[in-house]
Design a protein that fits this description.
heterodimer; A: 250 residues; mainly alpha; 11 helices; 0% strand; globular; B: Rossmann fold; six-stranded mixed sheet; four-stranded antiparallel sheet; 33% helix; 26% strand
Chain lengths: 250, 237
Amino acid sequence: MVSPIRAELRKLLGLPTARVALVLGTLLAPVVVLLNAPYNRRALAAGTLPDPTQLGLRELGVGLIGALVLGVVVVSSEYTSTGDDAPGARQLTATLTAVPHRLRLLAAKTVALVLVVAAQAAVTAAGTLALTQALHGEYVPMPAPARVVAVILYWVLTALLAYAITLITRNGIVPLTLLILNSTVVSVSYLLTKVTDLAAYLPDIAGAHMFLRTEDFPVELAPVTAGLVMTAWVVALLAAGAVLFHRRDA
Amino acid sequence: MITIDRVSKIKGKTQILYDVSFEARPGRVTGFLGPNGAGKTSTLRILLGLDRPQTGTALVCGRPYRKIDRPLTTVGAVLDGSGAHRARTARAHLRWVAASNGLPGSRVDEVLEVVGLTGDARKRAGRFSLGMSRRLGLAAALLGDPAVLILDEPVNGLDPAGIRWMRGFLRDSAAQGRTVLLSSHLMGELAETADDVVVIDKGRIVLHSGLADVIGAHRTLEDAFFALTGTEAGGPW
């Protein structure tokens, strides 16, 4: 089992897209903290910033885009055409001839993705929160370690969600567009919470409650409940993806 | 040893393979011959566990491919293209393939040398010519020094020197006791390389025999092929 994991780590870290996702995902949040620093400092001093204790945790969110891209490309790179000479040829053929047992392959991919995203989340969270401390230490306390662990878990689960959806679609464009739009431009999930309370149980909304508290929210999920709700989504989608991957012709 | 036993496959609503059965034995080159679309690639994909048949079994050394542990040490396969993501260098591709089966990194340089790609090891696979892609695919197949070689149209895209080299390589492999199965729609090519010939047409095996027996009363393998498949030399153009 170690050999397929080592191979999947090599494959993922060798992809240019994955490298860009790693660098951008790690640097985006600290850069946003720096760019927002003058505004935040004034707002903190004036006491107009809502819920200042969560400032660092909120600003981490933008880096999540890296985890999304990593989750998608770990699968979509298997399905992209390898060249114009052979339009039907894909890396998946090489992957499955090397590791033909479908579930063993998926287990190796999952472990590789979890390791990479957890490491990225840990570095980004530590950097962003330390920077927030350095800039606004007198107003913003360092979050409890449990909340930092919850952030890392949220990133890992988000990457796994993207990975599971791409296993089902076998194409990176649809999940990447949907997930990035939803996490940056317009949060459809958040808008849905204005329509129905049930939207609080959508994976991205529920998952964020593992480490963020919101006051004006219809359904208040405790951190552990929030984690369980998001984990249930990920497990269900991964199971569906695995069944399809196992059954479909490559 | 490769054993394919009564394999049938339906894709969508079309049946593409009907009770396909044949064997490929060690120490011999078995040519799998048929026109384009006859079912050669579909049969090889089932043999490699990529696609599932509706009925029948396809075994390599007595086991289904999906059940073989570290399969690259038993089987080397080359299908369409190199299998390398276009953004990866040849070496990076071979290194992950080697790692997946616990093979040492030193094998990467060895197989690059065998297929003559040492000088292109740092080039991205997306910039490879068709011939270079075929060589890279073959390099990956050789990483585990397998006893069985399965190649789909191995001379496609190769220049005359490459074709000559491939022919020698396949003959040498069989001489060393390996089982070699290659598909081709080029009859002249098989006549030069194969010991045994399996002819498939419209998803059915129409002949499985030694090369000399296949040619039989016909003047050449080409004549035998057209007589067996009932197609005419030359097309509708």
